[in-house]
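User: Hi! I have a protein structure encoded as tokens and I'd like to know what sequence might fold into it. I'm fairly new to this, so please keep things simple.
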């Protein structure tokens, strides 16, 4: 059974940092590209960061790349998102997504809430 379990969310003051984790099980993690998405209140889900199967290639929207860093540990079946200099507009539910480029299979986690507020 496939599981993607996000953790590390919470409340933080502006300027603070959080590190999200997404632990995967039930599929061959190293065969899947991993991404983080977020959905702010009342808005569409948007891409935050992506990483290739081996971790050597990452991609970010221009608005994210200076503050967010995605990484993965295939030995631990886990993908991370380091978020620095957080702003109130970063408040959202953050989701991890697994995508197999050969089979186009997609899995989503259940999300973790990040709230940035003073």
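Assistant: Happy to help. Inverse folding works backwards from shape to sequence: for each of the 118 positions I chose a residue that suits the local structure. Here it is:
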């Amino acid at each position: 059974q496939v599981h993607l379990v996000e953790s590390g969310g919470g409340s933080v003051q502006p300027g603070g940092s959080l590190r999200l984790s997404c632990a995967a099980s039930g599929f061959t993690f190293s065969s899947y590209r991993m991404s983080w998405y977020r959905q702010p209140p009342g808005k569409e889900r948007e891409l935050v960061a992506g990483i290739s199967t081996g971790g050597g290639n990452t991609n970010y929207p221009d608005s994210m790349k200076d503050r967010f860093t995605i990484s993965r540990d295939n030995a631990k079946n886990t993908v991370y998102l380091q978020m620095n200099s957080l702003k109130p507009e970063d408040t959202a539910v953050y989701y991890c997504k697994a995508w197999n480029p050969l089979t186009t299979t997609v899995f989503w986690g259940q999300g973790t809430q990040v709230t940035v507020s003073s």
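A useful reference point when you look it over: The longest strand covers residues 18-25. Feel free to ask if any position seems puzzling.
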